[in-house]
Amino acid sequence: MTALATSRTAARAEDGEDASTAPRADCIADSAGGLTFDVTDPGEPDAEAVHLLLRRRDAESAEDYVRLPLSPSADGRLRAALPSSVELAEGRWNAYVEVPGGEPRRLMPGVNDLRSLVDRAPSGSRGHVAVRIPYATKQGNLSVRSWLRAPHAESGEVEISETAVTVHGRVYGTELTAAAHVEAVRRAEPGLVHRADVTAKGPEFAVTLAYGPLVEGGTGPWDLWLRPAGESGPRVRLARLLDDVADKKAIFTYPVTAVEPKAGGKAEVGPYYTVDNDLSLRVRGEEEAGAGG
Fold first, then answer.
1. Which of 3, 55, 81, 145 is most buried, judging by how many CB atoms fall within 10 Å of its CB?
2. Are strands 152-160 and 236-239 parallel, antiparallel or unpaired?
3. How far apart are the C-alpha atoms of 96 and 107, rounded to whole Å?
4. Structure confidence at residue 206 (pLDDT)
5. Of all residues in the chain, what percent are helix, strand and coil, respectively (each to 5)?
6. Interstrand relation of 257-259 and 236-239 (parallel, antiparallel or unpaired)
7. pLDDT tens for residues 92-120?
């Protein structure tokens, strides 16, 4: 089946089917970034011809489709393996079971065993970090959230004071130099950058960002980037990826801090995770301060 044909049939399959008859998949994650899918009730087809199909949302090319053969396993189900060596571009990948002569059927989530993802610490020897987390969509279907970062700056503990926020982290796929620093970039005005020096010990780092310059710089989100080698090296987005939580924005929440701008009035500053699990700071002006949300 061509990529275009798959796109059409997979799009139709997005409408879903009765949950009581839809095939389900249990997922097991390994510490290297691989996933195993155990599928029940694919419609009893010829097992040698059945595939698990992963389709990236808004797919546009053949690279947005990954087919994995489903083979009988000892417990009577069909198993497919997605090894860490098979790259998935960043994004959300919908999961289907594909039978010859039929349209792809959307998979429902079964039991996800993600214990190996908790406190995961990859070596970074490949120069990148690959993360795949299966999850249930709002419609109750199975999807996989994928990240592929090269290099990667993993954010850890976040300490909040009355005047600043301190972020601890670890870098993968590159080294920290004496020139390492973090840039807070105002999203609405990318040319506006506040820099803060990094304290490093091996691959681990800490950075303290004062609220004052951000409040004076303007309201809205400020995105955090690590420059491990200073201006001459890569620019790496700070993110929290190495655990079993696919969407952190509503799970990892932090208090906001009230700040008084030099020009008077009120403002609030606080860290948060974006929909892509990247770490940012948000400045709210007087009209938003205390409004919540």
1. 55
2. parallel
3. 5
4. 98
5. 10, 45, 45
6. unpaired
7. 999 999 988 888 999 999 999 999 998 78
